[in-house]
Amino acid sequence: MTIIIFYEKPGCISNTRQKRLLKASGHLLRVRNLLEHPWTPETLRPFFGDSPVNEWFNPTAPRVKTGEILPNLLSEADALEALCADPILIRRPLMQVGDSCRSGFDAAAVHAWIGLADPASDVGDACPRTV
Predict the structure, then answer these.
(1) Which of 6, 76, 109, 131 is deepest in the core (most CB within 10 A)?
(2) Dist. CA 116–CA 131, nearest whole Å
(3) DSSP annotation string for 7-53
């Protein structure tokens, strides 16, 4: 059993499915509201590891979909400022196990990290309402 701090958007269908899979895999979740957490660049940055800035963003966020926010054109500092100011932009979920942090939900990567009962699950991080 792994204890996971799981930052979600309450009511998100994908986050609900991800939590169900993690619990079925024997993990204990400490669920937090991603939108209400007091993010700072220093607290948010570790979740993105070495992934490119554009992958830090939720591609289905309204401001990304309309082109108001262009993740490919942002510096790391500008991206962190935008994400902290408007957390709906953050690719979710954010997960933390000890000092290890992750953004998004790729079942194969999560399985390699902490183990999943069904690593072939199609539980991704794309919102089913927009795909």
Answers:
(1) 6
(2) 24
(3) EE-TT-HHHHHHHHHHHHTT-EEEEEETTTS---HHHHGGGGTT--G
Angle in degrees, CA 26, 32, 35, rounded to 5: 140
**For residue 114, which of 125, 105, 122 has the smallest C-alpha distance?**
105
Q: Which domains does the chain have, with CATH numbers?
A: 1-34+92-122 (3.40.30)
With 0.70 as the threshold, say if the pTM is over it.
yes
User: 8, 2, 4: which is closest to 32 by C-alpha?
Assistant: 8
SS3 102: strand
Residue with tokens 């919102």: 127
Q: Is 84 a catalytic residue?
A: no
Catalytic residue, chosen from 12, 84, 101, 127, is 12
